[in-house]
Design a protein that fits this description.
CATH class of the largest domain: Mainly Beta
Structural class: alpha+beta
Number of helices: 9
Shape: globular
CATH architecture of the largest domain: Sandwich
Number of domains: 2
Distance between the termini: 19 Å
Helix content: 25-40%
CATH superfamily of the largest domain: Regulatory protein AraC
Largest sheet: 6 strands, antiparallel
Order of helices and strands: EEEEEEEEEHHEEHHHHHHH
CATH topology of the largest domain: Jelly Rolls
Strand content: 15-25%
Length: 264
């Protein structure tokens, strides 16, 4: 697997905005996959493709998950930070503004085998390719195909409100925490009704639905890293493996085993 070009030693050291090409791609070598990249932004839009493992990307008020064979799209100028699982293999695609019809907001998209191979092929080419050459024609096809990529609802709304952030931080640290909405309200010195309204107004979801979505995000990340279904069910505090599988299947339409078999 090729390394970053031009001697770049870290994903954080690469500045995509110095290139005028419509799109450039970089395959990240295994040893350069950092567990976290600090908040940053750039003029170009960025597509982070997960080849193996999982990537999570945090933008204002939301956390986006990228399971294998998916990608997260981050529009240009959007501050973001990313984390990857230890076994992750990723590829970056940077796209000039207006070079393709892409979503105006951050989103997770499913990547077809054709788009995946086009991105990987582009990653093998020189970054400063000619605007009328073979690589430029390949990029035109890639961007046309990419604009049709289906959007997946694999994100978790996270409010900057201190009370919501405290709940989120607690649940990420201990996903099996089963503190009820009433108990959280008492802990946060507010009424149950007020806290329920706050969660709904800031995340767009009820407390139960929001916590389930958080569980789904954590489950996908752990499963992509190779954890067993039984282990993930225990981590999330489910009474049985079947209860966890039921939740997963209701959210994504397939059992965990079927879901990841499809991705592979």
């Amino acid at each position: 697997m090729p390394n970053f070009k031009k001697g770049v030693s870290s994903p954080e050291d690469f500045d995509s905005d110095v290139f005028a090409q419509a799109a450039i791609a970089l395959k990240v070598a295994p040893e350069l996959n950092h567990s976290g990249i600090s908040p940053h932004d750039h003029r170009k839009g960025q597509l982070i493709l997960s080849l193996r493992g999982a990537v999570s990307c945090e933008v204002q008020n939301a956390l986006w998950l990228v399971p294998p064979q998916h990608a997260v799209w981050i529009p240009g100028g959007t501050p973001h930070s990313c984390r990857v699982t230890q076994n992750a293999r990723t590829c970056f695609l940077f796209v000039e503004p207006d070079a393709a019809v892409m979503p105006e907001a951050c989103c997770t998209v499913a990547i077809t085998p054709l788009v995946r191979e086009l991105i990987l092929h582009l990653a093998e080419q020189e970054l400063t390719y000619l605007s009328e050459g073979k690589t430029a024609r390949l990029v035109a096809v890639l961007l046309e195909q990419l604009s049709d990529a289906p959007v997946k609802e694999l994100h978790l709304p996270i409010s900057d409100h201190p009370k919501i952030r405290q709940i989120a931080d607690t649940l990420f640290a201990d996903p099996g925490d089963r503190t009820t909405l009433r108990q959280w309200a008492a802990r946060l010195a507010t009424s149950e009704r007020s806290l329920a309204r706050l969660v709904q107004s800031t995340t767009g979801l009820s407390f139960g639905r929001w916590r389930q979505q958080l569980h789904l995000m954590i489950a996908l990340s752990h499963l992509a890293e190779g954890a067993s279904v039984q282990s993930v069910a225990g981590t999330l505090g489910y009474d049985s493996v079947n209860a966890f599988i039921t939740m997963f299947k209701k959210a994504l339409g397939k059992s965990p085993t079927q879901y990841f078999s499809t991705l592979r």
